[in-house]
UniProtKB/TrEMBL annotation:
Its main location: other. It comes from Stappia albiluteola. This is DctP family TRAP transporter solute-binding subunit. NCBIfam families: dctP, TRAP_S1. Keywords: Signal, Transport. It comes from the Bacteria.
Amino acid sequence: MRNLSKFLSATAALAIAASTAAAQAKELKYAHFQAADLASPKQAAALAFETCVEGKTSGGIDVQVYPASQLGDGSQVIEGLQLGTIQMGVVHDGPISAVYKPFAVLAMPYVFDDQAMAWAIMDGAFGKEMFEDMRKETGIRVLGVADNGVRNFTNSKRPVAEPDDMKGLKIRVQTAPVWTRLVESLGASATPVPWPELPGALQQGVVDGQENGVTNIVDASLYQHQKYVSLDGHVFSWHAYMIADAFYEGLTDAEKTAVNQCVEIAKVIHRGMTAAQDANAATILAAKGMEVVPVSPEQKAKFRELSQPAVREFIVGEIGEDWPNKLDAAVAAYRDQ
């Protein structure tokens, strides 16, 4: 009887300890916009991050993943990070550029040769300097970036192989002015539409087309309302792994280390899945019923000649020459290796 009493007391103590630990766990709400499906790079990476952080902190951080824009669009997630109602978000470049203007330099078209160059520059001194500047200006810490896909144009009207084919098309763009300038420089009209509203805008004919990487085209079933895809690869687009700096600074050193290490794991998963889809874009999108329009190097040069000076002029007008020059220098240094 005495042994039973000891057992029950020990069990009760363990239950109380577990309950207390759960109550003291730091809640980390993690928001992103892709579907709650392991085929979605952002979701696969998010679940890996959740498992990794909770394991490394022995449950000291309780990660709660909210996919499919459950906590709002990109702009709302950024606002939540600044208000402290969301602790972590993985948001694409458009909404970030609207809050932290220097991020718009990454919308410079036809800058990066391939993923290897893009990753090296964003993981290197250029990216680190930008992220620290963003933290000071916004109170949001960027822990790393992963691919939002190499962006290509799609539309429901006609094949687009060169800039003249863009004339008269209504193209959806992200909600930052730099993307409007990019599309307008090629002769099309630009309509900013938040991501959650894009499928409806295509279905209803509010816009004729849009520009995104294959991951997002497939993830949101945009191919259902788009007949043509032009593989021009105009911009290497990004998702930033962002955390509210006040929340991050409230973590212990061990918890910070866990978060940093687990973001690295999530980032590799995210990059690998997205890059693989980009590499197989023609096959993937043709299988979805889209007509794939190849863009030759000569035709891509025409897109570059029209868009790059116009977008650069806009970016310099918004943020000055400092960040565009730093990006140019980083690209030159990479090529000189």
